[in-house]
Amino acid sequence: MGDESKTIEQLISELNELAESFKTKPMFEGLFQFAPDAIVVVNRGGDIVQINKQAEKMFGYSTDEVFGKPVEILCTRTLQKAACGAAQ
């Protein structure tokens, strides 16, 4: 039978393994860092674990500055810039 006989848990496990393999590949890192769009990766708790170069430009933070911080800090910084710009 093929994939029809696999359980959801098995499929999720395989997808997680595949995702982990992409994390270790230089190609993934290059695609991530040089994507034309901002990408922010957060963990289940909502803390930032990685951002790419476009996100650094957009939000004005380096990866080191936001690592482990709640993703909401990016929203706060963006809203502050917008409010300051509108007030001028």
UniProtKB/TrEMBL annotation:
Q: Name one GO molecular function term.
A: kinase activity
Biological processes, Gene Ontology terms = regulation of DNA-templated transcription
> Which SUPFAM superfamilies does the record match to this protein?
PYP-like sensor domain (PAS domain)
Q: Does the keyword Kinase apply?
A: yes
Signal sequence, renumbered to the chain: none
Q: Which InterPro entries match?
A: PAS, PAS-like_dom_sf, PAS_fold
- Which residue ranges traverse the bilayer? none
Could you list this entry's UniProt keywords, alphabetically sorted: Kinase, Transferase
Q: Does the keyword Kinase apply?
A: yes
- Which positions fall inside the PAS domain? 24-69
Q: Which Gene3D superfamilies match?
A: PAS domain
> What is the recorded name of this protein?
Sensory transduction histidine kinase
Q: What is the protein's species of origin?
A: Candidatus Methanoperedens nitratireducens
